[in-house]
């Protein structure tokens, strides 16, 4: 955690147990997801989560470049997480930094877990996540958006990955930290969760937590992921209905599968 | 070869329609696509706009920070324009350092707003020779269906309109609006089979022989121009495009 | 294809042994490899350690120079961690800019020592807001047989122990020891066929489904965590690994 | 334009309508062209234009690298415009910047227009332009030199591209701005022109121009290009004569063609 | 393979002639190619020279700007040498960051002029520890037919001769000549079939076994040396080349 | 040479002709070599030479990347010399600089001289030199270590390259300069020497030397190389004995050859 000392007038948790933005500890920020927002990409999703605005796009399965990365037995899921230079208060230099390389890697790994990569040997499934406006929790928002974009692209998947963080602020375990809580908080635990297998595919932690706090936080994060999952599925249903109404567009394979399996 | 065959077929199809005076999407030759503008879209930016021009989507964010002037312009703020043609926007864009296309987009957009004096940089000086406001215009293309020059130019102009300079970034108590003074609007055409088409789609760009971008001001004066692609224009065609740009630019300007 | 056949055979061999409760090198599932630590190995560094964890060899050098603080932390020294997975260490490492793996190693090592407050950065201030000590932790992997996270973490902690701040670098007459306050030790496991194996070798890493690194402090608290690879963990498995890390971390800490 | 304010003592146009260096508005700076100045390149040309010194070299048609740029139906004309670090008053860092990338692109496009690229599928024709001494107008000088170098290399061409800029200084439309005029002027219009087809293949503009000024400027630039063209052809004739005198060297295909067609 | 066959044929041809004591271009073994020098060729540079050595053409430009000294040499101007083996000069040079060859050329040229104290850097100090003259020696190879080391070295020495320090760049009213004090001239040989050939052409370089560059001063002292390529020299051969360099260097020096 | 003026209290050579660290002019610093110190590499060697600590590793012969560097007739010996960021007093930025590129090149050339590259066409033999602690003479230490690592890897060689520098300090010709002598000295002559052919394969010089001084220096450097050679061979003998004792490991081809030929 940032380790920035808390200004005197800021109370992260008030006397009623409410957080700066009025939320209770287990309460997420408002989350809106819209699937199929881009024309050119094979699949896409837009996420507004609190003050985060994140876009995800999927291209593929397609020929894998560079060639030497091709896997003869499976598709490669390659995620590229990028923050727009204007997404943060102080302008960020364009291009990847070490943080974005790391996030790209762990999101790629989390998504690979749910994609039937064995169906598309030698190909690449490219996932692009653009953070347009950042307010803490962008990797969870990006992973959440990417899962929906993959489904929108018709990529066959075992399940969606839902993602949300827990954390500790003012010695209280909470979910879904906003920017102030992230800056002045004590710990952060981003989690990527696969509801149908009840497994964790993305997990990081930094800060200071007792064993008990960690256990509580992980449970709270998983519970929040389940709510995220519902919102992801609703977005895909809306997208499916919209598409079905448009005769020109065939129903995507995966959404059909998703609907069946997910019920 | 497969790609080329498809391109050839597309070219044939576009050509046949053009011969009948029709564009693939039904537009007239001198007609822009539908344009929607949303300003103040990015709260973390000092100014921003998301625009949709047909199926092309561009987000422009303006960041304004305190910094040092260039040594040869001590009494002027600094303008820097950057374009990111991120791979999200098209299967033809790649990650990595800016390529020739994104550099050309950034430079042509920059030329329009700089030479058209969209923003009065002389009013962005904190202490002459020492401290000025540095303005970054970042063009983020998220969905690409042609004519990035105009989409980015319009988005930048729209973003300027509501942009503010945050006093807190220089220890000042008050914010101030960006000193906007002009709206240099660019209009781009391509030439296919000798025909001049305004606001080309990606497919039209790919089969086009030549491209011309002209930026004009409120008073009808010209402030920037860029010809592209391997084809050529006659002088008469250039004058025609200049005329088109003045006319359509005025239309677009009225949208702000 | 040849490479994949070998990998498949290796996986089969490892799996069969694991089914019998045995690892290829004869270790128990929850057993670290032999660890040797040599501190003050590099005289040109302000602190250093060369460690051998099984056949993995890592040299960590600490350089401490005078510099400027970040503007948002005027009362704190600066910690920078870098990892070089040089091609000497493995046929799979390449020259050139840090790749994803070395970035992840650097960031996970950094997270452990930063979040675990291994060094009291508030005591590394020369003049608040103006001059502080900048500490570079450079991880040099020279022989690679898996588990770089822990090897580098242990080497960094060992190097801190005897590191000194050279007063002469800031015009001061006296040296001072690095203000070490905690020893955040990381323990890494992989999951193969549902089994949790501590301190994986390179072969085990290559066939592993998932990886989890947990760093803990003297008081048993957690300070950093990183899950890797395409596989998944149940919540119960996560809690088991946390428990393992606390136990084994205490063992390792006793070695300093 | 630079937008630098004009120093008090500088008069860009005097009472007699003459420019700082004594030229009349429609008058170009002295232009010297020499073809075939390098041994190693397949073709080359050296241009001294006012205080500009520019060298152009051509290699090819040759195998196209990287492969994925190969066009199965035509040659690729790839221009690389570069300013030597000592070519300007304040040393320029070696290597390409955004400006040189843009200029390389538009010169490549202008040259492609006149090369019979369809004769050499899958190949690359590489054009290198080195600005050794810069004094405004280097892209026009570079394009002018490159055309001659292509002809010197025997690359079959429809015509040469001739290039010159017009501009506006002290509210007067002039051609071929020098460095001071470029710094303190009001507009610049670099033009690349193909005389035989009477077409424009390179066109840029920056500054402030009324419609009338632009029209006048474009006409003046084209007229200047026609003068440049004559000097280009004279240089090639001299080169051709020199070569013909030397029995070892066969007459280049293109020059023969040029002479025939250009008369 | 085609390339190698041609190389083999070339080697055979060169070898056969050498066996008869003849070089391809008719020169004696210890003979330089014709040399022409044009100084003050680049007006935008503070000093410059264009030289032609046989068919090798090099332009060297000297830029001198005000800047800061290195912290460990407060009483010395700064010399930086850079070589650009631009693709114009040869089909074997590529665009992009300097490769090994251009780095070696830059470093060997730099070594000669630095170690030979061609310019008295102690006289290029404006304010000790704060402001000094920074001199960039930029070697631009425009036509390449071998022996860049000597061509660039001679061009640099020639450019120094008439170079001036522009006072205006540091707010001074007067210009001053560059404080030139020595002329360290390098001479390069290659070894083919045991024969030592001075001033190799590109073809000779390509088939050469070994290369040796020796730079000497007016007083006959040695100031720099660089052996290259995979072949070897006996000690006797080295001493012979040193002797050659002193003799031929004196000839070249007399040309300035 | 650095050209740093000598502090008043420093005497590079004392009244007894001894150097700062007590050595006589022709005396080398203590040199220890150990072969076979790394598990993963095909061959390796560790050198402690005065206060230098240098590691060398060899991989290959193996497939040559990038492909276009492949030589159809021989192996390519590619050396990569690198200084660890903590190997010098002031932290060095990681990654190659111009100095390390040059050293990599001349060491590659020196090693190529002794390797039977014609046995392994189209392959690459990759040599990695890591300077962990630097105290002047690292290129000689690196070349010395690399030769031993090549032999340890079983790469067939005509001979080892032994390397040591001579130089001039306080107007005295000496061998094997240490850091202070390098900083305050007058000349440096790094030499790479092949004892069996009695030839020089690496040679550089910088500083100021009369003809006589150079001749003396070169002879002294070669004499020192002969001592280095003996220590290299001893290290390989120890390594060979250790390997022979371990039944699992076959005796390396080259050591056998070396021993036979080297006697």
How would you portray this structure in words?
The complex is a heterohexamer, with 3 copies of chain A (about 260 residues) and 3 copies of chain B (about 260 residues). Chain A has a 5-stranded mixed β-sheet. A 4-stranded antiparallel β-sheet of chain A has the order 7-6-8-9. With about 260 residues, chain A is of the alpha+beta class. Chain A is built from 5 helices and 9 strands. In chain A, strand 4 (about 75-85), helix 1 and strand 5 (about 125-135) form a beta-alpha-beta unit. Chain A has one domain: 2-Layer Sandwich (Ribosomal Protein S5, domain 2), CATH 3.30.230. Chain B has one domain (about 35-255): GHMP Kinase, N-terminal domain (Ribosomal Protein S5, domain 2, 2-Layer Sandwich). Chain B is built from 5 helices and 12 strands. Chain B has helices at about 1-20, 100-115, 150-160, 200-205, 235-255; strands at about 35-40, 45-55, 55-65, 80-85, 125, 130-145, 165, 175, 185-190, 195-200, 210-215, 220-230. In chain B, strand 2 (about 45-55) and strand 3 form a beta hairpin. The chains are: A alpha+beta (about 260), B alpha+beta (about 260). Chains A and B meet through strand 3 and strand 5 of A and strand 3 and strand 6 of B. Strand 9 (about 200-210) of chain A pairs antiparallel with strand 12 of chain C.
Condensed summary:
The complex is a heterohexamer, with 3 copies of chain A (263 residues) and 3 copies of chain B (256 residues). Chain A has helices at residues 98-112, 138-152, 179-184, 211-245, 253-262; strands at residues 31-35, 43-49, 52-63, 76-83, 123-133, 162-169, 172-175, 187-194, 199-209. With 263 residues, chain A is an alpha+beta fold.
